[in-house]
Amino acid sequence: MPATSTPLEGRNRPLPARPEIIEVTDLQRIVPGRGKSIVVPWGIRKSLGPVFLAFLWWYATASGAVPEDFLPAPSALWSALQELYTSGDLGEALRLSLTRASIGFAFGFATGVGLALVSGLLRIGEDLVDAPMQMMRTLPWAGLVPLLIIWLGIDETPKITLVAFAVCFPLYVNTFAGIRNVDRNLIEAAKTLQFNRTAMVFEVVLPGALPGLLVGLRYALGSAWLALVFAETVNAQGGLGYLITHAREVYRVDIIILCLFIYALLGLSADLIVRLLEKVLLSWRQGFEGE
User: What one-character-per-residue DSSP string does 99-123 give?
Assistant: First the structure.
C-alpha cells in the first residue's frame, strides 16, 4: 500500500520561503529618442511660406521676368497703400466691408447652427429641414445676385444676404454631421444616469459636436470673404470691392492687387482666431500634430 501522510505530518512541513521584495526608488521614464533638433518658434515657422513667396515676387519683378503692368512690384503696392491711407479711402472701405461681413456672418451663423440643431436633434426636424437645405446648398450663391437685387434693391441688404447665404451652409453641414457622429455609447450612458433632455444636449451632444462646428466655422469664414468680394463688386458704393471696381476702370493694377491682398489678410486673421478657439475649447482632445 502506498504511504500516506497524516494531517499532523502535513502541518510540520516547512513553509516555502517568501520571495525577497526589492524596493526600486529611482525610476526613470523611457522616452523614445528623436535626436537633437532645433526648436523654431511658431511665429517664425508660420511666416516662412509668406516670406518665401514675397521674395519670389520681389525677384520676379526686379529682374524683369514679370512686367510691372502685369504684376506690380511690392514697392508699388506700398505706394498705393500710402495713397489710399492718406486720402482716407482705405479706412472707409475697410469699415464698410467689415460691417457687411460681420452682420452677414451673424445672420448666417444663427441660421446655419439653429437649423443644424433642429435637424440633428429631432428626426422630424431632419425630415423637414435637411432635404431643402441640401438642395439650396448646391445653388451657386453668386448666381443669386440678380434675384437679390430685384427682391431687395441695391442697398446693403442684398450684400449682407449674400454673405449670410454663403456662411449658412458650411455651418449647417458640419454641425449636423458633428451631432450625428456623437458616440452612441455616451448617449446611452447619459440615459442610464437619468440626464434630462436639456442636460443631454448641453453636456453630451453639443460638446461632442463642437469639433465639427469649428470646422464648419473655418469654412464659413472663408466663404464669407469670398461672397463679400463678389457682392461689393456689383452695384456697391463703398468697400474694398468698390475700390477694386474703380481701380479696374482706371487700370490701377496695384490697387486691385492691394485690395485682394487685404482680403487675404482678413481671411487669414479670421482663420487664426478659429484655430485659437480650437486650442482653447478642444484642449481635452489630443490629436496628432505632425512630426
Answer: HHHHHHHHHHHHHHHHHHHHHHH-H
Q: Distance (Å, rounded) from C-alpha 214 to C-alpha 275?
A: 8
Per-residue pLDDT tens digits for 64-85? 888 877 888 888 889 999 999 9
CA distance 74 to 130: 48
DSSP 3-state of 79 = helix
> Within a domain: residue 61?
no
User: Which tens digit of pLDDT belongs to each residue from 242-287?
Assistant: 898 888 888 888 899 999 889 888 888 888 888 888 888 877 666 5
Contacts of 220 (CB under 8 A, 6+ apart): 105, 108, 109, 112, 166, 167, 168, 170, 171
Number of folded domains in the chain?
1
pLDDT digits (tens, 9 = 90+) for 192-230: 888 888 888 888 888 888 888 999 999 999 889 888 888
Is 9 within the bounds of a domain? no
pTM, two decimals, is 0.76
Evaluate whether residue 6 is within a structural domain: no
Confidence of residue 173 (pLDDT cuts 50, 70, 90): very high
Q: State the CATH number of the domain containing residue 200.
A: 1.10.3720.10
Higher model confidence: residue 284 or residue 166? 166
Question: Which amino acid would we find at residue 150?
Answer: I
| 287 in a structural domain | no
Structural domain for 160, as ranges: 73-281
